[in-house]
Amino acid sequence: MKKKLLSTVMILGTLALAACDSITTEDQANNGSSNSNQETVEIDLLGAAADEKDLNILRDQLTRNGFEVNVNQQPDYASYRAQRDAGNFDVSIASWTTVTGNPDYAVRSIFSSDGDSRVIEPNTEIDELIDQAAAQTEGEYTETYNQLENELVTENAYIAGLYNSLKAQAFDKNLINPDSVNLYKSRAFAWDPVSFNDEAMNDSETLVLTQMESDLTSLDPVKGNDSSINQLNTNMYVRLVNLTEDDQVTSDASLSYNHAIAEGNSDYYFILRDDINFASVEDGQAVDTGERVGADDVVYSLDRASDPESVPDQRTYSLHEYINEVTVVDDLSELETAELADGNTTVKEALESGLDTPINSLVTDKTQADNATGNYQVVKLTTTEPFPQVLNYLAHQSAGIVSEQQVESVNTYDIDNYNVDTDIAYGDQRAVTEGDTYDNHLFASGPYIMISKNDYEATFQKNPAYMTDTENAANIENITVRFIGDMDSSLSALRSGEVHLLYGLSETQYEIVEGEENLELQTGDSNAVSYLIVNTMNEDRKTAGSVDLRKAIVHSINQEDFIQSYDGQKKKAFSPVSPLVDTENELEADADLVQDHLSKYLEQAE
After folding, report:
1. Domain locations in the chain?
2. Assigned CATH class of 25-165+526-605
3. 361 neighbors 374 (Cβ within 8 angstroms)
4. Whole-prediction pTM value?
5. Among positive and negative, which fits the CA dihedral 471, 475, 477, 482?
6. Rounded to whole angstroms, how far apart are CA atoms 25 and 21?
């Protein structure tokens, strides 16, 4: 029997429907049944209404295996989180999506003892495995993550995987060129490659997209990491690197031509482009500020990204805590003598690969960079310890490059006395909201800039100074993001032509899209995992004091039931790591093991 592990993290709701379905002889044969002579164990299952189907399946599985399940269904996510944060549950359905495409993100914040979203009791062995894997390259860390999963699921039964979801989007193929639409496993949807079939429309027509949230956390990359701004900030701020559709780190369409990891896995070099200027908004139009995006802006942006005190309510510093120092390289000999981590060549040769002009000199003043004559800027990032996965975090929207000059001119408030009601910080949505507060102060380094927003939509325009005359220049001039509060309404808007592309479809909507001749459905793998949290954080809960009880719960989970209920549109998941690393761990239901662990728990409880 393969070992299994359960993963936890960002918790998505669960639903509560108390009741026990009648158990048939066939049910017992297929799924295992509780020992009629054994005392049942009462447990509380917490969830939100959005996960009703999963709650019902889980309730039935636990009931069949000898549990009396009390379902606490909360009407919305906020109410659910309040109950979860108070520890009012034995088991809870949760979800986690690794938006950076690397396994460290899948485990650190939810499982490490100092994680900002921790869902398990502190465990030094788990901490050590997380840190060990972080220092290893992709070819080395598979076994370490295998051990970590087994500690989480098999040995301690802290979590249990339910399933890994697919990712999907749909668009009007009669209007939009299908070859221009990418479906990313982790990265938020990129707008710049998208083109209308009739390319003449790119300048004259507006592409209409949608998202559910109209209240934007912040348009300052370091002040938010949620669905209200991830897609928007991804398209407004360039980064040192990007992620491909299948989560590979690339310099394509980023601020760097190339990047290189030096020997020791602690020094990372980036050679910068010189063809991106910041855009601003004047008289309702995007304009070229004339200010180049350069190395000083990179240093400033990443320093503030890794500093929890850089701005009030800094929400993304934990993603960048491994950044020790960011500097501008001024000595060409450093690049000539530093060797790559793989030992194949020097950093200079790696950075020059594919360049039209080799490096002639390094300049620290961004206005002096002239790539055509070989004068480049190179940025060096040093980590606190070897950490190859730092590149994935640099591809996240929170590592977007902002203008030091502009941000400092806006953020003139005293940080210690910052008043959220009266002080308008850089990126505050009030500055772009139509009405008395409108005073658009944004400087965008990416392919688009937000012109304005209201309660119904946000409007964007192409940055006129973003990689112009290259294949990376944005195609469509104007984009509108409509704020539509639920996916069913969004799908209706797509079908009626009010929206041109819908990002993030649920499985229940696939058949509807496939029934429309003008719509194209794209589906692919994602890093989204639904899992079960077993409460070890609240000492008053019986699950906190008994690993046997937790193991009985974990071995009650039959993932096939979930997959079948979604018509096969789910995959098995052992933990949040499953979509990212093939550890070969698999969770299997085992009624005999359930009864064995329940018996031990009841004996100890007497």
Report:
1. 25-165+526-605, 176-483
2. alpha beta
3. yes
4. 0.87
5. negative
6. 13
